[in-house]
Amino acid sequence: MRVLVIGSGGREHAIVWKVSQSKKAEKIFCIPGNPGISEIASCVKISISDFPAILEFVKKEKIDLTIVGPEVPLVSGLADYFKENNQKIFGPSKKGALLEGSKVFSKQMMKKYGVPTADFEIFSGSKEAIKYIENKSIPRVIKADGLAAGKGAIVAKTMQEAINAIKQILDEKIFGDAGNEIVIEDFIKGEEVSSLAIFDNKTFIPLIPSQDHKQIFDNDKGPNTGGMGSYAPAPILNNKLQDKVNKEVFQRMLSCFREEKIAFNGVLFAGLMINGDDFGVLEFNARFGDPETQTILPLMQTDLLDVLNAAAENNLENIKIEWSDKSCVCVVLASKGYPNDYEKGKEIKGLEEIKKINNAVVFHAGTAIKDGKIVTSGGRVLGVTAIDENLKAAQAKAYDAVKKISFEGMQYRKDIASKEINRTKGINELTG
Ligand code: GLY
After folding, report:
1. Residue whose CA is closest, atom 3 of ligand 1?
2. How buried is 26 (Cβ within 10 angstroms: 0-12 exposed, 13-18 middle, 19+ buried)?
3. Are residues 317 and 349 in the same domain?
4. Residue 227 CA to ligand 1 centre (angstroms)
5. Could you tell me the residue range of the domain that residue 356 belongs to?
6. Of 269, 290, 325, at which residue does a domain stop?
7. Which of 100, 195, 226, 325 is most buried, by CB atoms within 10 Å?
8. Tens digit of pLDDT per residue, the chain (432 long)?
9. Do 194 and 257 belong together in one domain?
10. Domain check: are 199 and 319 in the same one?
11. Distances (CA, A) of 253 to 73, 104, 162, 281
12. In testing the pocket of ligand 1, which one of 195, 290, 413 has its CB within 8 Å of the most ligand atoms?
């Protein structure tokens, strides 16, 4: 098969890397890709928002399957455009991607189809929103409706913070038109986990759970980022809870897609808050997670191309996904200053060293080539990923690999997967 992957981050590098292991992958292209991806696929400079140019490329290169990584082209209707032009694509329709593109739509669908989520109200005027919140308890969550590069959800810990957030989003338009409406919802306590499932229009297959580390500093301190590292599987979503999630989230969303006539051949990513035996959906994304994908795909034993092609053809019911029983950890290396303004153009050293380590791989995110050298070009630069027999060994291997890489100003968390490892250690100590 001739395959095209759209995107340029660590998630897309992981997808291309996994697809490249398929015997059926005859030729892989990536638009626009990155220096890491260019080692295993042909990267093509086309804007991911230039749909006619992408279509022309797909026709010229006789692409059999296009796989979309990021949400922006999906929310703009790339999958619909492909289908109108008789091209096969893995990625939900514009209406499906609205589950990520509009928090208002997403919460309305969750409520309508009985998916467990926090109670909420929707507002478009700040006066009404402030009047409502003044009678409510704190903390409370305020979310801009549209895409806001991961910054649109604010957990207000004081009434003043809540009022400021409402005014900033609705009146000052800090997120532009993405803030024409807001969702105000109850704060739910617990621990977050990412539960992803591959959907076609008939069925779904859940992937192993993964846990992201959103804050920039160790022990979940500091501002939120795109994700500083992940591990899989995440045992906090145990089998009993996964069954509940399948029944109460994915099965109900399959009904939603049928009833609302939403074409959904893609990934539904449920961000969950777990509290004991209970959970609530914090948000939906309509794509693979980043950096969750960097730890989920290395453990997939089934041919990813078979899975995604079957989903694109509404043939998922004939697929069973097998998983390795090992663990995987990804540590994100970021530029100095990230998640605020960050430095660029710093030479990255040590990448060749990692290739000598068995079961370790570096996924490129924000890298570029300058004067023949690989340099930093983004906030999140690399995802250093390792597989081993258990989480502790995978963590040790990932951090050993991290030590081989350097660039000026490099920062990373030292505690990716530690919470889970310490929890397991606690249980082992208790049970002797
Ligand atoms: N890791 C969170 C996301 O992909 O949105």
Report:
1. 289
2. exposed
3. no
4. 7
5. 326-432
6. 325
7. 195
8. 999 999 999 999 999 999 999 999 999 999 999 999 999 999 999 999 999 999 999 999 999 999 999 999 999 999 999 999 999 999 999 999 999 999 999 999 999 999 999 999 999 999 999 999 999 999 999 999 999 987 889 999 999 999 999 999 999 999 999 999 999 999 999 999 999 999 999 999 999 999 999 999 999 999 999 999 999 999 999 999 999 999 999 999 999 999 999 999 999 999 999 999 999 999 999 999 999 999 999 999 999 999 999 999 999 999 999 999 999 999 999 999 999 999 999 999 999 999 999 999 999 999 999 999 999 999 999 999 999 999 999 999 999 999 999 999 999 999 999 999 999 887 777 666
9. yes
10. yes
11. 22, 16, 31, 12
12. 290
Ligand 1 contact via 225 beta carbon (within 6 Å): no
The answer, yes or no, to whether any atom of ligand 1 lies below 6 A from the CB of 209, is no
Number of other residues whose CB lies within 10 A of the CB of residue 388:
19
Q: Are residues 318 and 332 in the same domain?
A: no
For the domain that residue 351 is a member of, what is the CATH number? 3.90.600.10
* Tokens 């609205």 sit on residue: 98
DSSP-based three-state secondary structure for 363: strand
Identify the bridge partners of residue 380 per DSSP, sorted by sequence position: 334
Helices 304-312, 10-19: axis angle to 10 degrees equals 100
Number of structural domains (the chain) is: 4
Give the Å distance between the CA of 240 and the centre of ligand 1. Answer: 24
106 domain-assigned? no
CATH code for the domain of 193: 3.30.470.20
Q: Among residues 279, 304, 325, which one ends one of the domains? A: 325
- Residues 6 or more apart whose CB falls under 8 angstroms from that of 307 comprise 198, 205, 300, 316, 319, 321
Q: 190: which residues sit within 8 A by CB, 6+ positions away?
A: 273, 274, 275, 279, 280
Q: Is the CB of 290 under 6 A from ligand 1?
A: yes
CATH code: domain of residue 138: 3.30.1490.20
The answer, yes or no, to whether any atom of ligand 1 lies below 6 A from the CB of 211, is no
Quick one: 194 and 270 in the same domain?
yes
- d(CA 349, CA 205) in angstroms, rounded, equals 39
Residue 292, ligand 1, Cβ within 6 A: yes
Quickly tell me which residue has 């000026």 as its tokens: 408
Asked whether residue 392 falls in the same domain as residue 404, the answer is: yes
Pair 169, 267 in one domain: no
